[in-house]
Predict the structure.
Amino acid sequence: MRCPKCNYNKSSVVDSRQAEDGNTIRRRRECENCHTRFTTFERVEVSPLLVIKKDGTREQFSRDKILNGIVQSAQKRPVSSDDIEKVISRIEQTIRSQYENEVSTVVIGNLVMDELAELDEITYVRFASVYKSFKDVDEIEELLQQITNRVRSKKKSSVADEAD
């Protein structure tokens, strides 16, 4: 494995453990040249999953595209890289368990929005504003009202739980 700092080709595994999704091995490595420690993930290579885009074209599924969209939406928000990795793993696991060879971008986008709504409301709004391509302010206002209602219902249920 190539070191991300000095590009040296040899590293040793310091620690290995199963990642939370159960399908990935997380390895801590140390570069034999500069002694920088870094993390790699190893997962089973599965059959290719094609994504059907809105224009009908198909391309191979890419975790990186989801990662980039979430990272951009989560800028300057209290969302950790571990949280983002967990979200992406849950999304990929859901897609692979429910769809055999092809899945639409609509399904993927909705899964991302569901996950982000639970993770961080502002990140969710940022992602949704790009993904949904709102035509006017009324559509944004409707989305904000849905989020407000969800947050209020969460607060009511947590207050009710504390009272019990």
Summary: The helical segments are 63-73, 81-98, 105-119, 121-131, 137-163. The CA atoms of residues 136 and 142 lie 11 Å apart. The two ends are 53 Å apart (CA to CA).
